[in-house]
Write a structure and sequence with these properties.
The complex is a heterodimer of chains A (321) and B (146). In chain A, 28% of the residues lie in helices and 33% in strands. Chain A has five helices and 14 strands. Chain B is an alpha+beta fold. The chains are: A alpha+beta (321), B alpha+beta (146).
């Protein structure tokens, strides 16, 4: 018979075995802590920063294009105004490269690499009428029905700033009319005063459907390509009769932009069109100049977890396609 | 006195048998409990990892969508994830036809499916545990080990 002290060994061994099992459990559950911790993080890769950076680049390059275009308008007439001149002056490349260095510097401080480079420039013509009290007739005095631009591929930043908002035609018929026409489909936008004295824009789609926006503002701005009227989103320009079309959206290239009853409106109109030559833009009472219509820039962004390289097409004020 | 009722040998055998029975029961129940917990932990971990990979796939999708030319945009999203779940190897498979990520651990074998919603087309591909990268491959999203 064993000594009393030797008893209970089997229980001891069993307790040891159970102890080991529960330690294993603790280890297993412990590994879950890391993943549980992982689960509480919203996003461990910074992919949305890449997209934000892409958006910032698009905005910055858009601003640079606008500023280069405006500088170009101020070139003296003796200087040759052409897109090749713009390109050879390297204004866009120079400014974009400056912006790229700035961006790279700030991003570098957060451990990110970023670069922006101009790849391609599409030329066009920028026009702006000069006199706020002038009507929209051809050359300021001639025909009241005329083509603002022909053989147009694309249009951006087409804006009309009305200065005679209280003395427009008082009906849609005979009122100033902006038309976009490819020979088959035609969009029209009439601008007039209603009986309450509001400024009304009435958009007629190629299929005959129409919609309107109005404002009590007497000097409203119509952003035709941006889809706003007097600073507010205008459903007629943006979405007519619920078909989700922007003004001129189903017109195919090339198309013609024309004014009718241009004596009925006063103010300033401006825009940039993608046309092959300066002669495609009519006799604007103001200034027309070759300009950068759009630019393609190569954008690259890198962090330790994200790599993103893409071309970005920049055409500020262009309607969504 | 000691010889009454049962012999000491029988008494030993009985005591040992009862103790063994009791202890076997305890160990079986204990290890069973641990196994259940481990399976649950593995499924939970695979779920978390799957959600992360899915979020990276969707992030890459947004980046491809924002690109001018989908086929030649370089998009790569890497994330370092645990290389094992509860000391079991696992792999992640991108199932293009079901739009799902299928995560499978090797031992014990557990499978978890996580849905991904993308506009960009997916391509059947797979990656093991560790650093998993989501890439744009000619306009299709694939996963692999970076």
């Amino acid at each position: 018979m064993a000594d009393i002290n030797d008893r209970g060994q089997i229980i001891l061994v069993a307790a040891f075995a159970l102890g080991v099992i529960f330690i294993a459990l603790a280890v297993v559950v412990n590994t879950a802590i890391f993943t549980e911790n992982l689960a509480t993080r919203s996003e461990s890769t910074d992919g949305s920063d890449a997209l934000q950076q892409r958006y910032e680049v698009e905005q910055s390059v858009g601003d640079i294009i606008q500023s280069v275009n405006e500088d170009n308008l101020e070139l003296s007439d003796t200087e040759e105004k052409s897109v090749s001149t713009l390109r050879s002056l390297n204004w866009l490349d120079y400014n974009v490269s400056n912006a790229s260095n700035q961006i790279a510097y700030w991003q570098g401080q957060n451990g990110r690499l970023s670069s922006v480079e101009v790849n391609k420039i599409t030329g066009g013509v920028r026009f702006i009428s000069s006199d706020t009290a002038q009507n929209f007739t051809e050359g300021g005095s001639n025909s009241s029905t005329w083509n603002l631009a022909t053989s147009v591929e694309d249009t951006r930043s087409l804006r009309i700033n009305i200065t005679n908002g209280t003395s427009l035609n008082d009906s849609q018929f005979g009122a100033f009319n902006l038309s976009v026409d490819d020979g088959t489909n035609e969009w029209e936008m009439a601008v007039y005063n209603n009986s309450g004295g509001d400024v009304v824009i009435n958009v007629t789609e190629p299929n005959g459907g129409s919609a309107e926006c109005r404002t009590p503002d007497s000097n409203p701005t119509i952003d035709v390509t941006g889809g706003t009227f007097a600073g507010k989103v205008c459903p007629a320009l943006d979405v007519s009769d619920g078909t989700d079309l922007t003004f001129g959206s189903n017109v195919s290239d090339p198309y013609t932009i024309s004014f009718e009853n241009a004596t009925e409106i006063k103010g300033v109109y401006s825009g940039v069109v993608n046309v092959s030559s300066r002669g495609d833009v009519g006799n604007v009472d103001g200034d027309t100049a070759p300009a950068i219509y759009s630019a393609m820039v190569d954008f690259e962004y890198r962090t330790k977890s994200v790599r993103y390289a893409t071309a970005i097409r920049v055409a500020p004020g262009e309607p969504p396609s | 006195m000691n010889e009454r009722g049962v012999s000491s040998t029988l008494s030993y055998v009985l005591a040992l048998a009862i103790a063994a029975l009791l202890i076997t029961g305890l160990i079986t129940a204990g290890s069973g409990f641990v196994t259940t917990q481990r399976d649950a932990v593995i499924r939970e971990e695979l779920e978390v990892i799957g959600q992360h990979v899915a979020s990276n796939v969707e992030q890459a999708d947004r980046m491809v969508e924002a690109s001018e030319n989908r086929t030649n945009a370089t998009v790569q999203v890497n994330q370092t994830l645990p290389s094992t779940v509860a000391r079991s190897q696992y792999d992640v498979r991108l199932d293009a036809s079901e739009s799902q990520l299928v995560l499978t651990s090797t031992s014990p074998e557990e499978t978890v499916r996580v849905n991904v919603t993308t506009n960009t087309t997916l391509e059947d591909s797979s990656a093991g545990g560790g650093t998993i990268s989501v890439r744009n491959d000619d306009g299709n999203l694939v996963i692999d080990n970076a």
